[in-house]
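Marked as duplicate of an earlier ticket. Keeping the data here for the record.
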Amino acid sequence: MIAQLRGRLVSKVPGQIVIDVNGVGYQVFIPLSTYYQLPAIQQEVFLRVYTHVREDAIHLYGFHTLEERATFELLTGVSGIGPRLASNILSGISVEEFIPAILEGDLARLKAIPGVGRKTAERVILELKDKVLEVPRARPLVAGRQPGPERDQTIEDVVSALLNLGCSRKEASRVAESARETMGSEADFEKLVKQALKNLSEGTGKRA
């Protein structure tokens, strides 16, 4: 099993990256929380890795911190939640928010995550309430941040991230544009995604 990877960041898009490790390119699926912390292309990156083995494929899921990986592993242990949905959940809520939401039984917060309905939220709370305090608390690694791209490309990246979370393109475009109006022209990808997710959960933003 692959537990960690250190190598050169070859490509990155919201949801997945490619890491070159001694000439071998590894495709790694990541939540947005990890995407925010990635260095610039061609720089060194280090990720904690969860290896998901199926009969027909081996998928790697990467995380910036140990606590993200531990939370991901807890989520995949919940009935009906696979690695893809677990990664989506970590894209919609930080570990710092997730643990209190579980302990307090905050259904509304969990249901605000794209792809999580009431039954799934209830199941997550029921099955993890006695387990989340076991998640290790670790300080994130300090990583270089890539300078912000052109504004139109940033919005496209936000839309892409929302599509990966299960939004329709129309809805993703609507809340992304609304987020840009709210946050202003200087807002970076991370701020725009967080505002777009907030707009989505609140049902705000311009509608066609």
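See parent ticket for discussion. The longest helix spans residues 169-183.
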